[in-house]
């Protein structure tokens, strides 16, 4: 028998001083009410109620127990009401994992707009390019920039971003400008640690799909650092447009191999399960989908 249910039955009997009145209030049979109270008394090892043919009254132990029982039930009801309210409306803390460069470039303004729409949601953002475990590490949602997200996760496609091969004018003046993919093997290249192909870069050129194993003179886990290293003349870099775009516009980097096509990376919002998806998570994902749909004219194009 459930202890909380038995406590509620006892509290109702004590309040109404009657088993039958309590049964009517709880929509239970009098026999069932009697069983609940008897089970609770047996569990506690003491009599809680004096019973006569005309009325029911509390024993001293029963009066003490009723006081604590009512306080506990009130706290439980308040807790359940708070959880139910949170389940119905977007609220509470939302933990998000976002790649560092993308988070710096894009998320600040978006989160400001999100906060205006959902003031009851507090946001905790972790900027990390590491592939975190959403469940084990307690994240509600993550932004992943990849060709294909892990099949164990639920993913919503937000946008695509072109990958750009580029280098600084100073580096090209010293080392020469490559005209084919194969020539990259003779150049210093700057590698992103989490690039899906490792040090093998694949592109589609005039003669079809090609690949080259590059010499990674510098390898790092952050795209902003690699961009700045490329601007400083360290070598050739392959990075998403949202990282390299401004430097290309300003002439600090130069786009290479324009006749080669590089499949874009895709930007996803991922979460662990569709089951009982919290309103705060659903609100954030729907907001992100809409936000990127509104920026289809920018470099990070809507999917």
From TrEMBL:
GO terms for molecular function: DNA-binding transcription factor activity; sequence-specific DNA binding. Keywords: DNA-binding, Transcription, Transcription regulation. InterPro entries: LysR-type_TF_proteobact-type (IPR058163), LysR_HTH_N (IPR000847), LysR_subst-bd (IPR005119), WH-like_DNA-bd_sf (IPR036388), WH_DNA-bd_sf (IPR036390). Residues 1-59 form the HTH lysR-type domain. One of its GO terms (biological process) is DNA-templated transcription. PANTHER family: HTH-TYPE TRANSCRIPTIONAL REGULATOR (PTHR30537), TRANSCRIPTIONAL REGULATORY PROTEIN (PTHR30537:SF35). Belongs to the LysR transcriptional regulatory family. This is LysR family transcriptional regulator.
């Amino acid at each position: 028998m459930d202890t909380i249910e038995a406590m509620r039955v006892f509290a109702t009997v004590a309040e109404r001083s009657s088993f039958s009145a309590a049964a009517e209030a709880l929509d239970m049979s009098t026999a069932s009410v009697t069983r609940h109270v008897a089970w609770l008394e047996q569990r506690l090892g003491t009599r809680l109620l004096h019973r006569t043919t005309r009325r029911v009254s509390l024993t001293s132990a029963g009066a003490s127990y009723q006081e604590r029982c009512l306080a506990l039930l009130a706290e439980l009801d308040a807790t359940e009401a708070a959880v139910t309210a949170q389940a119905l409306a977007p609220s509470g803390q939302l933990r998000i994992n976002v790649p560092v460069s993308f988070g710096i470039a894009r998320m600040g303004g978006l989160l400001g707009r999100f906060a205006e729409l959902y003031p009851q949601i507090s946001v905790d953002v972790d900027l990390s390019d590491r592939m975190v475990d959403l469940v084990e590490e307690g994240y509600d949602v993550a932004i992943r920039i990849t060709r294909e997200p892990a099949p164990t996760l639920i993913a919503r496609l937000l946008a695509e971003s072109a990958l750009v091969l580029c280098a600084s004018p100073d580096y090209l003046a010293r080392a020469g400008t490559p005209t084919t993919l194969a020539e990259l093997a003779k150049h210093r290249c700057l590698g992103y640690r989490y690039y899906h192909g490792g040090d093998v870069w694949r592109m589609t050129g005039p003669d079809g799909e090609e690949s080259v194993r590059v010499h990674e003179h510098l390898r790092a886990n952050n795209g902003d650092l690699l961009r700045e290293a490329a601007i400083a003349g360290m070598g050739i870099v392959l990075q998403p447009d949202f990282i390299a775009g401004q430097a290309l516009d300003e002439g600090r980097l130069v786009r290479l191999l324009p006749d080669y096509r590089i499949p874009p990376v895709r930007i996803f919002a991922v979460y662990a399960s569709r089951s009982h998806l919290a309103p705060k998570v659903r609100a954030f994902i729907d907001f992100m989908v809409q936000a990127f749909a509104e920026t289809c004219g920018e470099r990070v194009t809507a999917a």
